[in-house]
Write a structure and sequence with these properties.
- The chain has 103 residues and is mainly beta.
- It contains one helix and eight strands; from the N terminus they run ββββββββα.
- The strands form two sheets. The chain has a four-stranded antiparallel sheet with strand order 1-2-3-4, with no helix packed on it. A four-stranded antiparallel sheet has the order 5-6-7-8.
- A hairpin with a 2-residue loop joins strand 5 and strand 6.
- The radius of gyration is 15 Å and the shape is globular.
C-alpha cells in the first residue's frame, strides 16, 4: 500500500544514498531528495514525496558518486560538471573553482 513509483523523466536511478535523514536519489539527468520520517506519528508514511533539486545535473555512473561527512559528491560526465549536495541543496563545485580563478 505504501508503494511509490517515480517517472523516468530524469532517466534511470543511478544511486540511492542516505544522508542526514534523507535519501538522495541520483538519476541519470537529475537529483532528488526524499525525507525519511522516523517519528512514531508518521509511521503510515515513512518516506515523503520526491523533491527534485536538479532537473539538469545527475550522473550516469554510480562509481562517480561519493558520500563524505561534508556532503554527497558526483560527476556529471554529460554536462561536464562536478556537483555536491549538502543541506538539501545542490552546488556546482566545478563552477566555484572557475569563479575563484576569475576573481
Amino acid at each position: 500500500m505504501n508503494h511509490k513509483d517515480y517517472p523516468i523523466t530524469y532517466g534511470s536511478i543511478t544511486k540511492l544514498i542516505e544522508y542526514q535523514n534523507q535519501l538522495i536519489v541520483i538519476f541519470e539527468h537529475g537529483i532528488g531528495l526524499i525525507t525519511i520520517n522516523n517519528s512514531a506519528e508518521h509511521t503510515s508514511q515513512i518516506l515523503s514525496d520526491l523533491s527534485v533539486i536538479s532537473d539538469t545535473y545527475g550522473s550516469q555512473w554510480k562509481d562517480s558518486i561519493l558520500k563524505t561527512p561534508s556532503g554527497v559528491y558526483g560527476v556529471d560526465t554529460v554536462a561536464k560538471k562536478k556537483w555536491r549536495v549538502r543541506n538539501g541543496k545542490l552546488e556546482l563545485i566545478s563552477d566555484m573553482r572557475v569563479q575563484e580563478f576569475l576573481n
